[in-house]
């Protein structure tokens, strides 16, 4: 990128085989603790539109996004077979006005409103490499961005940037901390979907033994939390993540027969929710 990125800048971030996604360069001091501990050297944090996840990436890999580019994408998407979630992300990016409003809304959505004391307006244009605990003064606001040192152990960083998909260790605590994590059920559902999709579907070669084992563990973890009352994977979580659609793809793939039983069991349990989602989709089309 020709100019240094600053907090509040709009960018396109490419993760794996997914389409480039609209995002905001996010101040590290407002990140959730689980996101911050996956901090990566020489990477900035971005927060996606129409998606509850964050991602760490090097500035050189990010592409600046302006309103003309957003408007052009939305115009070209009319009548085209575009991902509805991606179109929604561009629509949210078009409505983006200030970093302050964006962060305040994000903190409310994550039940973290107390993380901002409300004493002053959150301004854009700060150094995106500055970590938590760095005092904001006129001397460092607008100063040149400097990479930070490594603050995470190697095992905490994966090849997706730290938050692109869940590892089995990341998901072990869902059941133990269900009350704590229910506010994040949409984000976690998206992460489950992306990992299973990457392991089993979006690939040019057969899954490795380790990927097959991990996928079975992830499906078992989904089943455990589906059986809870209330289920972790509710109407809102399935509606946003489309996890049920991915399970149908896996179930219909003859090369993935070892997963068919697990997928069928989950789809049977989710049948009432799936029917409700279909009805909502029909109503939306008719309105």
UniProtKB/TrEMBL annotation:
Coiled coil: none annotated. SMART domains: PWWP. It comes from the Eukaryota. Residues 127-151, 157-176 are annotated as: Disordered. PROSITE patterns: PWWP. Residues 7-56 form the PWWP domain. This is LAFE_0H17150g1_1. It comes from Lachancea fermentati (Zygosaccharomyces fermentati).
